[in-house]
Amino acid sequence: MTEYSQSKLNSVNRLRKRGKYDFETIHGLVNQAPVVHVSFATDASEPFPTILPMIGQMGSFEDTSSGLDSPLDCYLHGYVSSRIMRLSQEAVARGEDGLPVCVTATHVDGYVLALAPFHHSYNYRSAILHGYAQPVESEEEKVWAMELVTNSVVPQRWQNARTPATKAEMKSTTILRVKIYAGSAKFRSGLPHDDRFDLKDESVVGKVWAGVVPTWQVMGDPIPSPDNAVAKVPTYLKEFVEKENIRSRDIALNAIKE
């Protein structure tokens, strides 16, 4: 199994058994997240890091057939004049590897309600990537990445939308390629884990409900815009909504199992 090397930067320290480092798991969690959060430092005069919600997707332009279990880059989509784009360009211009960034993805699969507040938790899946962000300069790679990111939102959407992008659209959009330096994932699944003294206390067990509330995102039926002239919802979109709702539900229900 190909995985990221463990180091002080990415090792899971608390509840180490929940940590995972293989490419397939980590890359899959990033790809399944509608939004990833990207953090980076601005400059020495600003004490706080910046965190941005962005659309991201793992892929390899050098080998487009690469699967999730291969070394991949993370492509981020953004507006050309945004701060992260400017800082990435400046880092490359200085001869650096790029702007150091941290990309995170989190999925919540259930609310874990224990007898005591101390043991309340979530069933969750999370991934963290550390890497260096560089603006994509090649127009060929940029178009490829724009298609990759677009289809990560809804599969086949690029092929079923007005393309190619106009010159103005290409000019106003920047794609960042994050070369991954380290990565890790962490999971929690199962039922509440209560202390023995609470489980043996009938006054507690008989009064406090304990268990898991499975949680998943549900997509509603597509609603046409006022300008829409297509009579029926396209098959690719209808199937995506149906399959995604089933997939999300199954993950949440399976997460209850230890």
From TrEMBL:
Residue stretches spanning the membrane: none
Entry-linked PANTHER family: 5-NITROIMIDAZOLE ANTIBIOTICS RESISTANCE PROTEIN, NIMA-FAMILY-RELATED PROTEIN-RELATED, FLAVIN-NUCLEOTIDE-BINDING PROTEIN
Protein name: Flavin-nucleotide-binding protein
Pfam families hit by this protein: Pyridox_ox_2
InterPro entries tied to this protein: Pyridox_Oxase-rel (IPR024747), Split_barrel_FMN-bd (IPR012349)
